[in-house]
UniProtKB/TrEMBL annotation:
Residues 73-109 are annotated as: Disordered. The keyword Lipid biosynthesis does not apply. SUPFAM superfamilies: Cysteine alpha-hairpin motif (SSF47072). InterPro entries: CHCH, Cys_alpha_HP_mot_SF. Pfam families: CHCH. Keywords: Disulfide bond. Residues 31-65 form the CHCH domain. This is CHCH domain-containing protein. It comes from Acorus gramineus. Residues 81-95 have a biased composition (Basic and acidic residues). The keyword Disulfide bond applies. Coiled coil: none annotated.
């Protein structure tokens, strides 16, 4: 007897809808430039998305402006903390400076 249906799936589990619901695809390629900039940034950065946040933000803004997704505050999408990244950069500089202080017994990397 076959368990799970004709295609091997478990028929007892209900599918979970996407968190943001459905949204139209960009059939008219209205945000292609922004999408290509973001993907290009990802490729050149070794797929470190943090370095490409500005392109991601531009892409989402483009989609919202053209009604390809629901308008939402950028801080709700994780873009409210640009100052936070500046703070982490200054923290990194302080750590580097402390590592290279004279009299420090730990070797600087």
């Amino acid at each position: 007897m076959v368990v799970g249906g004709a295609f091997g799936g478990n028929r007892g589990l209900r599918p979970v809808p996407p968190e943001k619901g459905i949204f139209p695809l960009d059939h008219l390629h209205e945000c292609d430039l922004e999408k290509k900039e973001y993907i290009s940034c990802l490729k050149t950065s070794g797929y470190h998305s943090e370095q490409c946040r500005i392109f991601s933000k531009k892409y989402l803004e483009c989609r919202m402006e053209r009604n390809l997704m629901a308008k939402q505050d950028m801080s709700e999408l994780g873009f409210g903390g640009e100052r936070r990244s500046e703070a982490s950069e200054s923290k990194d500089l302080r750590i580097e400076n402390q590592a290279s202080l004279p009299g420090d017994k730990t070797p600087a990397k």
